[in-house]
Fold this protein.
Amino acid sequence: MAEQLTTSCGGDPAEIRPLWEAARGMRPRLLTDAAAAELQATVRGLHLAAQRPSPARVCAMSPQTVVPEDVTALLYGNTPDWPVVNAIVDALRGRPEDIRPLWEHARQHPCAHPHPLHTDPPVPHL
């Protein structure tokens, strides 16, 4: 059901899998060769669940100072410092405590390039 709903909303089911697992109390899968991509995919799942707000809207939703470039970088390319990730996850109504293990793993095992299937962000809904 979650896969069908995600697909019908134009999302990638792999991006919501970590969220689905966390909701069921499962520990995140920590794949060394894809740590940064896994973190980005998970945050993209949160982004999809939040109806794909624009980076500027995510910043406005955050209780902390975040710039649109931080949002875009996290979704599609880089692994920012934890306070930035925490603020973005919080703005997207995620649970930072579920995302932190993925972030820590991504920082220890950085990816040389962004996720190949998502080099350009989708047009956000306004």
Confidence is low (pLDDT under 50) at residues 113-126. Residues 2-108 form one domain. The chain is about 55% helix and 0% strand. Residues 35-49 form the longest helix (15 residues).
